[in-house]
Amino acid sequence: MINKNVIAVLVVLCLIVAAVLYFKSRGGGAGPHGKAGKRPLEAITVDLGDGVKMEFLSLPAGKFMMGAAPGEDGAYADESPQHTVIIDKDIWIGKYEVTQAQWQRVMSNNPSGFQDAGPSAPVESVTWDDCAVFFEKLNALLASNSKGPALKGFRLPTEAEWEYACRAGTTTRFSDGGYAGEVTEFAWCSANSENTTHPVGQKKPNAWGFYDMQGNVWEWCSDWYGAYSEGIGKNPTGQPYGASRVLRGGSWAGYTLSTRSGRRFFSLPSVSTNEFGLRAAWERAKP
Ligand SMILES: [Ca+2]
């Protein structure tokens, strides 16, 4: 004979266990930045028409340490000082580099040197100025797309947004927290590329699900290249003027250390090489 009180206690215990499991599955009540790298990001797919789509992942609003950690092996002077950056806007970043098929759909041309790598390989041989035209046309294309929601605000990521997405909660040299010897698992660089680009998304993604942030093609950012500042930056957009624009992430031609998360590169905005490509960003317009 089971005592009624024992049954009542068991029922209460079961309810408590169920409640704990429920809240654990919801993230334990942690804020969006409570478990950097664990939170699944919101994804959207944008239809460019003609069977061409572009995928984006949201960045969690939050803050991160931008630049190389003090004493980081292989870091250049322009990656210091490491400083706090706050990103508190609704930003989506391309899950992949912009592909040759996407560029062709928007621009009606394909300047890539590695067309043999296929339509899913990243577009390259594009200048920063070309990218500005690409986004002008992409925004016009999507604004006229009556089938989907009216979308606008597509652009290059800022250098800070790019690094935030690349690091995915890490402060180590590489976004998987690993070492140069493991870079070939998530990046196409000179050690494994066989002197060509490769279709996007073939290597391991980082902890937030972004592919090829490191390697394959350098990615243009919107900023003028310039020195970092001490202190906290909020949604930084770089220098107000300059001569060169920023590129990030290393390429198929670079040695492994050039794919470090903090590594910066720059070029005149009118220059293109078969190492220069891009990734799209989308900023949700204020209602
Ligand atoms: Ca890349």
**Ligand inventory:** calcium ion
Structural class: alpha+beta
Number of helices: 4
Low-confidence stretches: 19-38
The name of the CATH topology is paralog of FGE (formylglycine-generating enzyme)
- The spatial strand order of the largest sheet comes to 1-2-5-12-6
Shape: globular
CATH architecture: Alpha-Beta Complex
How many DSSP E strands?
12
Query: What CATH first level would be assigned?
Result: Alpha Beta
Biggest sheet record? 5 strands, antiparallel
- How many domains, in number, for the residues? 1
What string, H for helix and E for strand, traces the elements in order?
HEEEEEHHEHEEEEEE
- State the CATH superfamily name: paralog of FGE (formylglycine-generating enzyme)
- How many angstroms does the end-to-end distance come to? 64 Å
Mean of the pLDDT scores?
Answer: 86
Report strand %: 15-25%
* Rg over alpha carbons: 22 Å
**What fraction, in percent, of the residue positions are helical?**
10-25%
Describe the protein in words:
It is a single chain. The chain is of the alpha+beta class and 287 residues long. It has a single domain, classed as paralog of FGE (formylglycine-generating enzyme) (Alpha-Beta Complex), CATH 3.90.1580.10. It contains four helices and twelve strands, in the order αβββββααβαββββββ. The protein has helices at 4-25, 100-107, 128-143, 159-167, and strands at 43-49, 52-58, 62-66, 83-87, 91-94, 154-155, 218-224, 233-234, 245-248, 264-267, 276-277, 281-283. The protein has a five-stranded antiparallel beta sheet. Strand 1 (43-49) and strand 2 (52-58) form a beta hairpin. The longest helix has 22 residues, at 4-25. The protein is globular and about 80 Å long. Mean pLDDT is 86; it is low at 19-38. The structure holds calcium ion. The site of calcium ion has 8 residues, from loops.
